[in-house]
Amino acid sequence: MTSLCRSGITLFLAIQLAFVSSTKSPEPRFLETIELGVGHKDPKPRFLKTIELGVGPKDADGFRDEMKIFNIDYTGSEDMMSNAAFVVTQKWREVDLVVIGVAELGFDPHKDVDFKKVFAKARKIGLELCPPDVAPQLQLQYPEQPIGEQVVIGMTPITDSDNNLGLFLVGRLQAGFFLESYVEDGLWLSSYVGGKNDLALFPDQQLVFVRPRK
User: Fold this and answer.
1) Which of 6, 15, 27, 78 is the most exposed place for a label (fewest CB within 10 A)?
2) For residue 143, which of 176, 185, 109 has the smallest C-alpha distance?
3) Residue pLDDT tens, the chain, 214 long
4) How many domains does the chain have?
5) Is residue 199 part of a domain?
6) Is 0.70 topped by the overall pTM?
């Protein structure tokens, strides 16, 4: 699995919502479609988690080794982690992560939106883009992630081996198939890939940003 196509993600969401609703597992927090409409003027990011950067792995290989230990499937993110643009934070610091949906930022809930417009709106309300290593660090430091949740990391895109723009995607499944990749324990780190010059985000996609500390 090197990328996630729209039909694959749509199928995944449908399967996961059906599965979660039939079990007693915690409800996924961020999967529902948000019908706020254009011009929503008071976007409220939700606090996700405070994580540490600059701890543990110091490069991509270190993250691969660490994720193997915890049975995290990272095959879908291999291309991006192999890119020189995947820079790992070396100095320790904490970052407060928040989640907000594309439609919640005021975009049409029925249309895909170019990532540049979405990120510009996130900056306008005081959020910052994540360093790329937020993705594997979040996955390693977020064992309580609800089943069925998937979040895209708001970051400067990194190209894959086909020079397509990509963002990291962090999610959790229960044992089962996901786009031809079998996920044994349910935790995975993948990529959300667009074209060579564009990357559109779904209106119900949930994005992770850094909330600066005052």
Assistant:
1) 6
2) 185
3) 444 444 444 333 333 433 333 433 333 333 333 333 344 567 899 999 999 999 999 999 999 999 888 888 888 888 889 999 999 999 999 999 999 999 999 999 999 999 999 999 999 999 999 999 999 999 999 988 888 888 999 999 998 888 888 899 888 876 422 222 223 345 566 766 566 667 889 999 999 999 999 8
4) 1
5) yes
6) yes
Q: Residue 142: inside a domain, yes or no?
A: yes
In a domain, 1, yes or no: no
Residue 152 lies in a domain: yes
Q: Which domain holds residue 61?
A: 6-210
The two structure tokens encoding residue 113: 């939106």
Amino acid at 132: P
CA distance 199 to 214: 32
Question: Is 210 in a helix, a strand, or coil?
Answer: strand
